[in-house]
Design a protein that fits this description.
12 helices; 8 strands; Rossmann fold; globular; 8-stranded mixed sheet
């Protein structure tokens, strides 16, 4: 009689190891939601402000924003962050530009300390409606509107929809074109899988966030532990992970791209030459479509050049604003 364990016994042993490994991973990467109150001290100290914005349907949306620089500036710079980011991505620009310009930054619904949208709608059109309501609430008739990635997409779409309100436009590695993603096969879209959403609401490996942040920098060695902390902790803000999944499932690339040629606002297009998410060729596409645009490429920078090298990129913005 053979002393070797039966196939069934070996299978049960293997299953036992799998369960044990899963339990260890679950303990290691379990990341429960964090309340707004627990995050404010580190990520929302002054000059941060929190307002309750009344939406067109009467509901109130909490908004985390910062309004810095001279309030006498009647045409402020309003900056919109990208997916999974927050207003903190513009801190370097605010430090430079805020000495002479009024600069307003905010966490868009679904991100940062603003948290999930009360409407549950993360379509481009709903974001444009939100922005229009916010600018009216702040009493701003005209602005210089800028945005990075997703925020850049909202910025140019807003300029197309409300041309009289946008004095000038700044696009930083902007999204919104229907271009193939280098890491995603053609035709594939981000689905709203319930299983993925439920798992994302419980687990968030910090090493995965670390890798994601490094991927958007041209020089990953510039990514500090504190920077990863910011992205990681703000993603854990209650409701943000589900909101991110919903935003990705509702995203429709190229939805309003036919409106680009009609944008008359002077436009500065900034792009990182090492952008691995939206290729630098997209800058030329925007430049060809926008009649009053100029392009400045930063060969060594990645997808978030305003964050990776705020000094050089802010200098380009200053020169652009002085030319208006």
């Amino acid at each position: 009689m053979s002393d070797r364990p039966s196939f069934g016994a070996r299978l049960m042993k293997l299953f036992g190891f799998a369960v044990l490994a899963s339990a260890i991973l679950a303990m290691a990467f379990r990341a429960p939601d964090r309340s707004l109150e627990s995050l404010v001290a580190r990520w929302g100290p002054p000059p941060s402000d929190f307002i309750e914005l009344k939406l067109p349907d009467g509901r109130l949306q909490l908004v985390h924003l910062r309004d810095e620089g001279p309030k006498t500036d009647t045409v402020p710079l309003v900056l919109l962050h990208g997916t999974a980011a927050s207003l903190h991505t513009w801190e370097g620009w605010v430090k430079t530009l805020g000495a002479s310009r009024r600069v307003i930054t905010l966490d868009l619904p679904g991100f940062g300390l603003t948290g999930p949208a009360v409407t549950g709608d993360y379509s481009d059109d709903r974001y444009l409606e939100f922005l229009h309501t916010l600018l009216a609430h702040l009493g701003l008739r005209q602005v210089v509107l800028g945005g990075n990635s997703m925020g850049g997409s909202f910025a140019w779409q807003y300029a197309a929809r409300y041309p009289d309100q946008v004095r000038a436009l700044i696009l930083v590695d902007a999204d919104g074109l229907d271009l193939p993603h280098p890491a995603v096969p053609a035709g594939v879209r981000f689905p709203g899988w319930r299983l993925v959403q439920s798992l994302a609401g419980v687990f968030l490996p910090r090493p995965l966030v670390d890798r994601g942040v490094r991927a958007v920098y041209g020089d990953p060695s510039k990514v500090s532990a504190a920077l990863v902390d910011r992205y990681f902790e703000l993603t854990l803000r209650e409701g943000n992970r589900e909101a991110l999944a919903q935003r990705l499932s509702q995203r429709v690339p190229g939805l309003h791209v036919d409106q680009l040629p009609g944008i008359q606002a002077p436009t500065l297009i900034l792009w990182g030459g090492q952008d691995r998410l939206i290729p630098p060729a997209a800058a030329d596409t925007f430049h060809q479509a926008l009649p009053h645009s100029r392009v400045q490429l930063f060969p060594a920078l990645g997808h978030v050049p305003q964050e990776e090298d705020p000094v050089s990129t802010a200098a380009a913005v200053q020169a652009f604003l002085h030319s208006l």
